[in-house]
Amino acid sequence: MFYCVVFNRVLRREKNKSPKDKRFEKKKKKKMIRLAILVVLFLVCFTSSYASNEVDVEAICKKSKNPSFCDTLLKSKPGGVGGDLGSLAEYTIDVIRTDVSNTLNIITKLIEKSDSDPMKQKQYKNCLSLFGMEEGALGEVEEALQMLKKSDYNGMNMHMTVVMTNVNECLGDSEDSSTQISPELSKNVGIVDQVAQIILIISNMFKN
Fold first, then answer.
1. Measured on CA atoms in the order 131, 133, 135, 137, is the torsion positive or negative?
2. For a tag site, which of 19, 104, 168, 195 has the least CB within 10 Å?
3. Which among 164, 141, 165, 145 is positioned nearest to 153, based on CA atoms?
4. Is 103 within 8 Å of 185 (Cβ atoms)?
5. Contact 55, 83 (CB under 8 A)
6. For 100-119, what is each residue's pLDDT tens digit?
């Protein structure tokens, strides 16, 4: 009974509407339909453009010291490079964390083997400090990851700059044989330097 009463009221209201009111409501409905269509079209276009937006690896790597190394590294990301620069940055930070940890293992072994050469041992201990967690490269990498998660790209940039500074200090003077490190360590330290530079380039792309 209640529904019948409501239906009758609605019916009477529609009958009592003037032709002007009916024309206004018709126009209003048309505007709402047009608006809904525009919103749907916008969402479709936005989703399509986002889905097809690949990170430009070439633009990143052409700024690096070794474009070939950079290209291989970024394209080795599981699932492909994709369109998410943040995910690529996180992957690259994971890579450098592993590289720094491997370098620390090499340095520890070199310290043990250099008992007979106090100068070398001192140098390797300095490298151990430069690559360690406490104010060293490993600590800087962890801080860079936190900066990325906070979208603090200037902070991320700063921590990677410190990593590269530490790398150069560990490498020593290439013209002074007394400060030259072992070829194995030199190779690993060089890899850390290259990856750090790539992360530095990515952090600058966020800012652009």
1. positive
2. 19
3. 145
4. yes
5. yes
6. 999 999 999 999 998 888 88
Q: Note the residue count of the chain.
A: 208
> Are the CB atoms for 82 and 54 separated by under 8 Å?
yes
The pTM for the full model equals 0.72
DSSP string, the chain: -HHHHHHHHHHHHHHHS-HHHHHHHHHHHHHHHHHHHHHHHHHHHHHHHHHT----HHHHHTTSS-HHHHHHHHHTSTT-S-S-HHHHHHHHHHHHHHHHHHHHHHHHHHHHHTTT-HHHHHHHHHHHHHHSSSSSHHHHHHHHHHHHHTT-HHHHHHHHHHHHHHHHHHH--TT-GGGPPPHHHHHHHHHHHHHHHHHHHHHHHHH-
Q: Which tokens hold the place of 64?
A: 């690096």
Burial class (CB in 10 A: 0-12, 13-18, 19+), 204: middle
Which of 74, 98, 103, 94 minimizes the C-alpha distance to 190?
A: 103
Which residue is listed with tokens 């800012």? 207
